[in-house]
Design goal:
Layout lengths: L1 H31 L12 H22 L28 H7 L6 E3 L8 H7 L3 E3 L6 H13 L10
Parallel strand pairs: 1-2
Helix pairs in contact: 1-2, 1-4, 2-3
Length: 160
């Protein structure tokens, strides 16, 4: 019986996750459409709210469809309390759960990730700090950008 459930549930889950991913891509595309100087200026107003609410909800829904249920114990630190939020070790797709639960903060990511189809658009909407492993000054530039955003007095979202 469990094999029969798996045969039915696996394709159903894959279809649902694909649909959720396409909705996330559409939301990210709308929120960043005609955004001047993308990545240099923070998203504001309806664009930022759309990213926070829509992508956070869709990410939570995707993990629920995959069978994960996450409960938060305690209180998530606000932007004023913690402009930089550290999550470690960050090496898997579970990092997206943290992003969804903390209101879709900016993240630090490899620059190459921004050019991947679908995921690159979603990632770009989070206004990441891009790290280039080919650039010898990238580490210094990344620290400077994180510091600039942390000291922006709430203009930029939290950085994770």
């Amino acid at each position: 019986q469990t094999l029969l459930q798996g045969i039915i549930l696996l394709p159903l889950r894959a279809i649902c996750i694909t649909f959720i991913l396409l909705l996330a891509w559409l939301s990210a595309s709308i929120a960043t459409f005609c955004q001047p100087r993308r990545g240099f200026l923070p998203l504001k107003g309806w664009r930022r709210r759309m990213i926070q609410t829509t992508l956070s909800s869709l990410t939570r829904t995707a993990y629920f469809v995959m069978g994960f249920q996450v409960k938060v114990k305690g209180k998530v630190a606000s932007l004023a309390e913690a402009p930089i939020f550290v999550a470690a070790p960050h090496s898997s797709f579970f990092d997206a759960i943290i992003c969804a639960l903390t209101g879709m903060p900016s993240i630090v990511s490899r620059a190459e990730n921004l050019s991947t189809p679908v995921f690159g658009t979603i990632l770009s909407s989070l206004q990441p700090v891009a790290v280039s492993r080919q650039d010898p000054d990238s580490r210094k530039n990344t620290v400077a950008e994180i510091t600039r955003r942390a000291l922006s007095r709430g203009q930029w979202p939290q950085v994770i």
